[in-house]
């Protein structure tokens, strides 16, 4: 319980500091943010489970957002009920976790726009949120909204004309004893966008015995009109073959030694004449996926139906494949938000 109270007090202090900054700034905005989310997943094939939901949750997100010409700041906490098993001294309590929090300092100069961002935040290339982002997310994560990934990181950005460049130093344990470097370049050509990124766990071998994994990915998208476009991503993930990984401080490699994976996916957003807010169809292929998930097919697919009910609420329903392309599952998430 003390941990919960401490987190709430810390969040209150951070929000108060943002309010003070907001009072001193011109042309700035400050607002509270939050929503309640309910999600349920059900396999439509025989997966040897009981005839009930395979997975479900109910959670809340609450935070604050401040934005001005020179500073943006976001804080978001996720709150789960005692049913999720946050046990202290034999009693269950609400589970509160720090999901996203960052400060982003911005400078607009005659040479372009610069920014420095630090905290915990997302870098997500995916449109539908089900496949892609191969430079960040583990390949065995697939299916319904599985590309939700946060970094504890410091990021430097530069934007000039059609080009946006980002250099990120990320960590696994918030101590920078282990971690990675990530470089990304994005070019915008009207309704087309092309991105390329490189990531390597360069911090791991500095103080530990570690295997190095190189990740290179490229993503492209083109929209013919609103809600009507194509997008996709291809990547190469290569892990080295260092012999001695038996030291006491050795770090487990991201993937098997001397392994190579070339995943790719293609997606299509389909217009629905206003019946839905968004409709996405995505197909992914990864050879030797069964090395990462036993008995898994190389092909995976998903179709996402998203409907914004009003200014405060939306629902997303996915029909997608699990381990086998023929193993169809149904998932739904309802979100009610503060405006």
Q: Could you give the topology of this structure?
A:
Elements: H1 2-24, E1 29-43, E2 55-67, E3 71-80, E4 86-88, E5 91-93, E6 95-109, E7 112-122, E8 150-160, E9 163-171, E10 179-189, E11 192-200, H2 204-207, E12 213-225, E13 228-239, E14 260-261, E15 264-269, E16 278-285, E17 299-308, E18 313-321, E19 328-337
Antiparallel strand pairs: 1-2, 1-19, 2-3, 3-6, 4-5, 6-7, 7-8, 8-9, 9-10, 10-11, 11-12, 12-13, 13-14, 13-15, 15-16, 16-17, 17-18, 18-19
What is the CATH third-level topology name of the largest domain? Porin
* CATH superfamily placement of the largest domain: Porin
* Sheet of most strands: 16 strands, antiparallel, barrel
Order of helices and strands: HEEEEEEEEEEEHEEEEEEEE
Tally the beta strands: 19
Gyration radius, to the nearest Å?
A: 21 Å
The CATH architecture of the largest domain can be given as: Beta Barrel
End-to-end Cα distance? 30 Å
């Amino acid at each position: 319980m003390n941990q919960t109270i401490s987190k709430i007090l810390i969040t209150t202090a951070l929000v108060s500091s943002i309010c003070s900054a907001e009072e001193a700034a011109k042309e700035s905005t400050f607002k509270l943010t939050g929503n309640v989310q309910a999600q349920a997943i059900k396999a439509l094939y025989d997966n040897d489970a009981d005839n009930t939901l395979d997975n479900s949750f109910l959670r809340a997100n609450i935070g604050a957002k401040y934005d001005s010409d020179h500073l943006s700041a976001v804080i978001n906490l996720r709150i789960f009920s005692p049913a999720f098993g946050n046990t202290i001294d034999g009693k269950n309590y609400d589970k509160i976790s720090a999901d996203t929090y960052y400060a982003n300092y911005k400078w607009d100069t005659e040479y372009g726009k610069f920014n420095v961002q630090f905290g915990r935040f997302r870098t997500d290339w995916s449109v539908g949120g089900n496949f892609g982002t191969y430079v960040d997310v583990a390949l065995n994560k697939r299916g319904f909204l599985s590309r939700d990934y946060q970094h504890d990181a410091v990021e430097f950005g530069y934007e000039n004309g059609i080009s946006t460049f980002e250099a990120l130093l990320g960590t696994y344990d918030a101590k920078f004893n282990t971690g990675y470097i990530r470089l990304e370049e994005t070019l915008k050509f009207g309704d087309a966008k092309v991105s390329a990124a490189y990531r390597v766990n360069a911090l791991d071998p500095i103080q530990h015995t570690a295997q190095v994994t190189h990740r290179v990915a490229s993503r492209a998208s083109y929209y013919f009109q609103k809600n009507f476009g194509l997008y996709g991503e291809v990547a190469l993930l290569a892990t080295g073959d260092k012999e001695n990984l038996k030291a006491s401080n050795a770090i487990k490699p991201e993937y098997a030694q001397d392994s190579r994976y070339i995943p790719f996916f293609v997606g299509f957003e389909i217009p629905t004449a206003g019946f839905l807010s968004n409709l996405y169809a995505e197909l992914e292929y990864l050879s030797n996926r069964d090395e990462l998930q036993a008995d898994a097919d190389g092909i995976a697919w998903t179709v996402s139906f998203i409907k914004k009910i009003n200014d405060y609420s939306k629902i997303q329903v996915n029909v997608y494949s699990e381990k086998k392309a023929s193993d169809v599952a149904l998932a739904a998430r309802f979100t009610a938000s503060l405006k």
